[in-house]
Specification:
This protein is an alpha+beta fold. The chain is built from 1 helix and 13 strands.
């Protein structure tokens, strides 16, 4: 009977020791899990911020409600697209007509131009003051239109605009024929 009591005491001690070890392991596992969740939460915040930075898209037309030819001018002149359809990220400035890259990445731009006969309808899409591509059309009678698209690698602060070419013109009215659009495809 005293041997059973010793054996019983030994079992109780072993049981309590094993319970304590399990509690310690459980506490450590819980601590590791909490740390993992903190890391995951931090990563989620970083991803959310990066995703917000990537949301850059704009589209605008020349006409702010008026019906008008823009040009001809004696030099190339920056067009100010006043009617903004969308401007997520506020990278397009409808006062200056200039898009400024908020983040390094690949961007896609599209230009559509419309005009009437008798004079060239011609614009130049420019990056940091340098010609990249143009949309051009000419015919003796009726109306004309042209379009172009291009993808560019831009650095933070690079600027893109559309200029009506010297001695050319473009037309727009409330039907919004002449537009300038762009969006960030992905950051680099």
């Amino acid at each position: 009977s005293s041997a059973q009591a010793v054996n019983h005491s030994t079992l109780e001690v072993r049981f309590e020791t094993e319970v304590d070890e399990l509690k310690t392991k459980s506490d450590e596992s819980l601590k590791d899990l909490k740390n993992s969740l903190k890391i995951t939460e931090n990563n989620m915040e970083i991803l959310k911020k990066e995703n917000q930075e990537r949301k850059v898209v704009f589209s605008a037309s020349l006409s702010g409600g008026e019906t008008a030819n823009h040009g001809p001018y004696s030099t190339d002149v920056t067009l100010v697209y006043k009617h903004v359809f969308i401007n997520i990220g506020n990278a397009y400035n409808p006062v200056t007509g200039i898009f400024t890259a908020p983040a390094r990445g690949v961007y896609e731009f599209k230009i559509y131009v419309f005009g009437y006969s008798g004079r060239p309808v011609s614009v130049s899409l420019q990056k940091n003051g340098h010609h990249v591509t143009a949309a051009h059309a000419f015919q003796d009678q009726h109306d004309v239109n042209s379009s172009k698209g291009v993808s560019l690698l831009l650095e933070v602060g690079d600027v893109v605009c559309v200029k009506v070419r010297a001695n050319a013109w473009v037309f727009d009215n409330t039907f919004h024929h002449t537009t300038f659009s762009g969006q960030m495809l992905f950051p680099v």
